[in-house]
């Protein structure tokens, strides 16, 4: 492992871990504003995580080792996945790190464990959440793969590093079809991070909850890890969208100034995207569960359109 | 050296067959152990032999026995055959170890001796099919495999379910043999020899070669369980003992895959549309197989449907190989073929692991219905860990082996941008989307399976009293689980060692990174977070002590998918109600049912069966038992022969 890659890993991981809670609270803040409320502070998610770390962990008497292992597996899988998406600094791909399929399947690994832990305590809410999560994931998966295939098609590579690298050198989206892919990626972002209209992250009402249902039995330190996992996953998907559509500012050399600028720029771009997500969520109503496949069909349509344009152009 | 190993393993398998047959009347454990030890020993020798050939890359030929002048039973083992011998040996050895514990808990007295003997013969037949040098011995051992597997399925012949499954299997497996035989005869017409050797097609013999390919494809598809010929799998697997299911699903289906690969690779020079045909057969089996598996409540039935899905994935690999090699893309063709082969091995490993551990669960709970299980992870911790490894592998989670082989398929699909033909390109992208759907559904399917069987609270008294199984029933699956992990983590290195530098991520690095990240997170939280834990009740909106009946069931879990894909499941909802009053306001009682149509059975199999019955009835009129009529037939036949001979002269 080269030194450059090691430095990249440290910077990228720190960025992801430290920035993720900020974006989560920003979206909450935007939603509160649009509802005419003051809303919690933008640092609220940090406070919540710190509070959870101080609390004891309560396990259900029914639960098995799955419940105990899930937070650790989830956080490590999502942290490894974070190495696949360059946030502020692009280096050479190393040992297959950056492979877009592996990135996707690391997120599937997280989902697999989360769904099992939902079933573990024997609570009806958990089971319902797992069932819905796995169903939605099954229906969105063809879209995600086609979007990724379209990306691989446009950039002639399966590696996210190569994709972002090409973008940074070009400075603008290399192909107009990337706008179409961007729309699909945005829908995938909404679905994967359990936002309205797919799921409602704010509620604990059994009719609507999916993600919250699965982690209902988690507590203390474990809950903090699960919340952080969800936040990091959101940041990664946001970063993928940002760096493919508006790539400027990413550093390609290992210099302190360039990276500092890149971090600031990324925070600003992330904040703007959080604003968009918050407004999007506020303007939508929660969809009926069985109406969701039609939303996914829309994302599927845009990515298929990209491929058809690329194939026949 | 290699010849000696080959002979020794055959002798061991034959000993494993003969010992229990000779002592069939005595119901003692030692005979069964001896027979299974012979099977395990023979399998280990097969593994050693295949590794020798795989590593050295030097094929060898064994002339075993001259059947009649000019024709001898000859075996030829090259790298492809050795690969499948490795697969057979690996699974058979673990199954033999498992069976030594499992078989003692079975009912049937000294019938169990015969079961051991049959297993040994079955494994021998499969090993000899793979190493056959010519089509005649291929066919001979193919039939031996069909017959022994039928006896194995019929082990519990006194139950109605098994008899029905056995009959179904018997008909389907012989249909398969029929098609393979037809293909072999066609090949003989086209080439004039029985050797499995390259067929040089001229424009004149091309139609014959095509017919030969189509009938071989049909024969292998029936045996491999490709939709719509799949129906025997979900009948035969639940009905047969678990080690037999593991062997049949893990190995026998792969022998059919071997047949297809061998004939395509060695004999034919395939055309593009053959590849498209195989690809479409594969993708439809993969999608429909996993969709049917998801709603299944019988644990072994679910695994059977999931086998159909995985065979579909293997066929996708073979189809891509043919398409890419017709397009002249050698690198992609190699990747696709390696994907098909690697997935065959991986599926053999994790599916037999799952069938064996499922067998342990069924043995412990005395039911196959996953709705009546639950909470087994605390009663059977080791079995649950082994099943979990298999579930992770089959759900294609990194860094296990299922992921490694599906990744190869994805890479082949993603790089199909280099294909020239735009129509093929569009077809490949449709298949890619469906393949992704398959992957996600199979993850959902195994969340449901593991969750309902092992997690939460026991939902029946049997499951409440379940106990962990004996050591040998853990040792066999444990070897398979270890192989699943090793083949996944070191996939890149293994391919590299065999001379294929594939563009796949280094999963070993990813595993190390996963562990490093986990260690970092743990260390950080060890110093910052509270370390107190407490055991309490599951939150139930304020009610105390929720019974297990409030849990989310398997049927509930699969309901969203069943609703979304209702057009594929063809659900029929029916309800009847009676009312107290005339205006139908107050319901007195009623029934409601949601029934899943057995689409293929009701619209394909039964009409064909009815047609065959009708035809048979008409033909049976010819045989009326009257001597005069029969004499008339003979007379007509003689006249016809005379006329024909006169005509041709």
Structural summary, described in words:
The complex is a heterodimer of chains A (313) and B (649). With 313 residues, chain A is mainly alpha-helical. Chain A contains 11 helices and 1 strand, in the order ααβααααααααα. Chain A has one domain. In chain A, helix 7 (177-192) packs antiparallel against helix 11 (292-312). The longest helix of chain A is centred in the first third of the chain and has 32 residues, at 3-34. Chain A is globular. Chain A starts with a helix and ends with a helix. Chain B has 649 residues and is mainly alpha-helical. Chain B contains 24 helices and 5 strands. The interface between A and B is large, with 81 and 84 residues. Strand 1 (57-60) of chain A pairs parallel with strand 3 (533-536) of chain B, so a sheet runs across the interface.
Q: Which characteristics define this entry?
A:
heterodimer; A: 313 residues; mainly alpha; 11 helices; 70% helix; B: 649 residues; two-stranded antiparallel sheet; two-stranded antiparallel ribbon; 71% helix; 6% strand
Short characterization:
With 313 residues, chain A is mainly alpha-helical. Chain A is built from 11 helices and 1 strand, in the order ααβααααααααα. Among the domains of chain B are: 271-501, no CATH class; 565-596, no CATH class; 599-648.
């Amino acid at each position: 492992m080269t030194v450059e890659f090691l430095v990249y890993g440290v910077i990228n991981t720190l960025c992801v871990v430290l920035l993720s809670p900020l974006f989560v609270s920003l979206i909450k803040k935007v939603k509160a504003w649009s509802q005419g409320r003051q809303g919690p502070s933008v640092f609220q998610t940090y406070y919540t995580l710190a509070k959870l770390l101080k609390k004891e962990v309560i396990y259900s008497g029914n639960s098995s080792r799955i419940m105990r292992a899930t937070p650790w597996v989830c956080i490590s899988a999502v942290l490894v996945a974070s190495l696949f998406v360059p946030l502020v600094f692009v280096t050479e791909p190393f040992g297959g790190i950056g492979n877009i399929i592996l990135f996707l399947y690391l997120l599937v690994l997280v989902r697999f464990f989360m769904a099992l832990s939902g079933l573990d305590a024997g609570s009806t809410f958990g089971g319902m959440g797992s069932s819905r999560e796995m169903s939605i994931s099954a229906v969105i998966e063809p879209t995600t793969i086609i979007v990724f295939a379209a990306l691989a098609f446009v950039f002639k590579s399966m590696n996210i590093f190569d994709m972002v690298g090409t973008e940074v050198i070009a400075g603008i989206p290399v192909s107009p079809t990337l706008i179409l892919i961007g729309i699909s990626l945005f829908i995938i972002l909404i679905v994967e991070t359990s936002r309205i209209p797919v799921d409602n992250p704010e509620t604990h009402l059994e009719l609507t909850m999916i993600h919250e249902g699965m982690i209902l039995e988690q507590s203390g330190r474990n809950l903090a890890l699960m919340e952080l996992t969800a936040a990091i996953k959101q940041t990664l998907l946001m970063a993928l969208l940002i760096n493919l559509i508006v790539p400027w500012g990413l550093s390609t050399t290992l210099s302190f100034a360039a990276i500092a600028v890149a971090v600031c720029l990324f925070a600003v771009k992330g904040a703007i995207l959080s604003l968009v997500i918050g407004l999007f969520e506020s303007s939508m109503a929660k969809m009926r569960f069985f109406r969701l496949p039609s939303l996914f069909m829309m994302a599927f349509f845009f990515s298929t359109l990209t491929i058809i344009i690329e194939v026949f152009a | 050296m290699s010849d000696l190993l080959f002979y020794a393993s055959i002798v061991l398998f034959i000993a494993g067959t003969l010992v229990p047959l000779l002592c069939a009347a005595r119901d003692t454990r030692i005979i069964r152990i001896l027979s299974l030890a012979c099977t395990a020993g023979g399998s280990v020798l097969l593994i050693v032999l295949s590794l020798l050939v795989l590593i050295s890359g030097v094929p060898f030929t064994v002339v075993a026995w001259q059947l009649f002048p000019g024709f001898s039973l000859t075996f030829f083992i090259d790298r492809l055959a050795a690969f499948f011998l490795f697969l057979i040996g690996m699974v058979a050895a673990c199954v033999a170890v498992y069976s030594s514990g499992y078989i003692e808990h079975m009912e049937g007295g000294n019938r169990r001796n015969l079961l051991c003997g049959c297993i040994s013969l079955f494994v021998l037949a499969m090993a000899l099919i793979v190493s056959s040098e010519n089509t005649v011995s291929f066919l001979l051992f193919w039939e031996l495999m069909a017959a022994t597997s039928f006896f194995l399925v019929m082990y519990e012949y006194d139950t109605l379910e098994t008899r029905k499954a056995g009959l179904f299997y018997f008909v389907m497996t012989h249909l398969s043999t029929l098609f393979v035989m037809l293909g072999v005869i066609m090949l003989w017409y086209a080439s004039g020899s029985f050797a499995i050797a390259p067929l040089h097609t001229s424009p004149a013999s091309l139609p014959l070669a095509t017919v030969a390919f189509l009938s071989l494809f049909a024969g292998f598809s029936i045996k491999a369980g490709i939709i719509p010929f799949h129906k025997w799998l979900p009948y035969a697997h639940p009905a047969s003992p678990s080690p037999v299911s593991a062997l049949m699903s893990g190995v026998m289906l792969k022998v059919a895959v071997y047949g297809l690969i061998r004939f395509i690779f060695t004999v034919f020079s395939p055309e593009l549309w053959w590849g498209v045909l195989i690809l479409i057969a594969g993708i439809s089996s993969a999608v429909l197989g996993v969709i049917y598996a998801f709603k299944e409540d019988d644990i072994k039935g679910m695994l059977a449907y999931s086998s159909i899905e995985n065979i579909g994935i293997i066929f996708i690999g073979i189809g891509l190989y043919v398409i890419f090699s017709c397009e002249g893309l050698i690198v992609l063709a190699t990747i696709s073929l390696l994907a098909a082969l690697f997935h065959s091995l991986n599926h053999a490993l994790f599916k037999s692991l799952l069938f064996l551990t499922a067998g342990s669960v069924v043995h412990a709970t005395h039911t196959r219905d996953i709705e009546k299980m639950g909470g087994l992870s605390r009663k059977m911790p080791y079995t649950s860990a082994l099943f979990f490894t298999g579930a992770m592998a089959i759900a294609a989670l990194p860094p296990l082996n299922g992921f490694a082989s599906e990744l190869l398929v994805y890479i082949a699909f993603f790089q199909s941008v280099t294909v020239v033909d735009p129509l093929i390109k569009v077809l490949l992208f449709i298949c890619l989307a469906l393949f992704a759907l398959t992957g996600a559904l199979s993850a959902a399917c195994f969340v449901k399976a593991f969750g309902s069987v092992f997690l939460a609270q026991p939902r029946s008294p049997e499951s409440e009293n379940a106990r962990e199984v004996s050591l040998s029933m853990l040792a066999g699956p444990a070897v398979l689980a270890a192989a699943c992990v090793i083949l996944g983590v070191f996939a890149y290195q293994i391919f590299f060692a065999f001379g294929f530098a594939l563009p796949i991520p280094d999963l070993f690095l990813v595993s190390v990174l996963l562990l490093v990240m986990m260690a970092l997170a743990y260390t950080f939280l060890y110093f910052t977070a509270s370390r107190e834990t407490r055991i309490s009740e599951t939150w139930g909106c304020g009610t105390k002590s929720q019974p297990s009946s409030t849990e989310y069931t398997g049927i509930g879990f699969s309901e969203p998918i069943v609703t979304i894909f209702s057009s594929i499941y063809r659900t029929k909802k029916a309800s009847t109600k009676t009312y107290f009053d005339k205006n139908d306001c107050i319901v007195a009682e009623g029934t409601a049912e949601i029934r899943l149509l057995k689409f293929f059975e009701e619209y394909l199999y039964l009409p064909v069966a009815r047609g065959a019955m009708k035809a048979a009835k008409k033909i049976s009129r010819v045989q009326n038992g009257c001597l005069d009529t029969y004499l008339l037939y003979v007379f007509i036949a003689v006249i016809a022969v005379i006329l024909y001979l006169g005509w041709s002269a």
